[in-house]
Design a protein that fits this description.
There is one protein chain. The chain is an all-alpha fold. It is built from ten helices and no strands. 46% of the residues are buried.
Length: 306
């Protein structure tokens, strides 16, 4: 079990790297739509970013997630897989026993809680770097950094050191409450649909799902999870982007209240289309990278019991 446990973490790392490369451009659009100003819809946001920043703008802030999201995914997938096996071992006496729905829910919730510890700072830095070219309303007040138009952060390391200096350790976990409310149910709607769909798509007699089955099940699971997580994702993005030039929100409840009073209920579904669309290729790449890597690490060659 120790070897298999290690393989789950390595495979999660590879899957995470694949998902960042595939999904970062749409992630930038999603963040700008949810936390920025001046974008009417998804297409307008894409055109504006391209016009103002060229193709490079879509990959802004990618170096940090590429280096760190792999670790984040490694931990998340490793924790989920090993928690599921631990539960199966305790309940059925066999770690490879097919999990019940309640087992999947429990393992998904544990993965969601653990993910915030690592994913909170990763998301924060990524969003701060994505947002620092935003237009600002001068009338809005005292900006935290000198001149409008100057980047607040020179890169990921400078971003981390600036946040620690100005906001302390708590600043690194800004938006963690909203992320917890997003990720605990979000991972349930991520791993459970994937497991169910893989079982449904895979022909009887096969030891493991085919790459096309993994791709399809992972993509659908990602679209479901990200689509339903959008309301709390909006709150999380706003809280984390808030500290670039000014502090507007005091916390989750205050962010929800201010957002609702200024923009109505529609604000909480802002970016839902790009979230769901981006969720498909990102999660398809994530699960495909994970499953293929795990199979290669385990040396599995046979696809069926025949």
């Amino acid at each position: 079990m120790g070897s298999l446990q290690f393989e789950d973490f390595v495979a999660g790392w590879i899957g995470g790297a694949a998902s960042v490369i595939v999904g970062h451009p749409l992630d930038t659009v999603k963040t700008r739509l949810q936390a920025g100003q001046g974008y009417g819809n998804t297409l307008n946001c894409i055109l504006t970013v391209y016009r103002n920043e060229s193709v490079v703008g879509f990959f802004k802030g990618m170096s940090f997630p590429l280096a760190s999201i792999a670790v984040y995914s490694s931990v998340t997938f490793g924790v989920f897989s090993n928690t599921q096996r631990f539960i199966s071992q305790q309940r059925y006496g066999d770690s490879n026993h097919a999990p019940a729905l309640s087992d999947l829910i429990a393992a998904s919730m544990v993965a969601g809680v653990v993910s915030v510890g690592i994913g909170g700072p990763v998301d924060l830095i990524k969003i701060r770097l994505q947002m620092q070219t935003q237009p600002f309303i001068k009338a809005n007040i005292n900006l935290k950094h000198g001149a409008i138009g100057f980047p607040a952060y020179r890169g990921p390391i400078h971003c981390v050191s600036s946040i620690l200096r100005q906001e302390g350790l708590a600043g690194i976990y800004r938006g963690a409450g909203a992320m917890l409310l997003r990720d605990v149910p979000g991972y349930c709607l991520y791993f459970i649909p994937y497991t169910v769909l893989c079982g449904w798509i895979t022909p009887e007699g096969c030891i493991s799902p085919s790459p096309s089955s993994v791709w399809m099940a992972g993509g659908i699971a990602g679209a479901i999870s990200w689509g339903t997580a959008t309301p709390m994702d909006v709150v999380k993005s706003r809280l984390q982007a808030d500290g670039v030039y000014l502090n507007k929100y005091k916390g989750v409840i205050d962010c929800i209240s201010q957002s609702y009073h200024s923009e109505g209920l529609k604000v909480f579904v802002r970016g839902i289309t790009v979230n769901a669309v981006r969720g498909f290729p990102m999660s398809a790449a994530m699960f495909l990278g994970y499953e293929l890597s795990r199979k290669a690490l385990r040396g599995d060659q046979a696809e069926t019991n025949l």
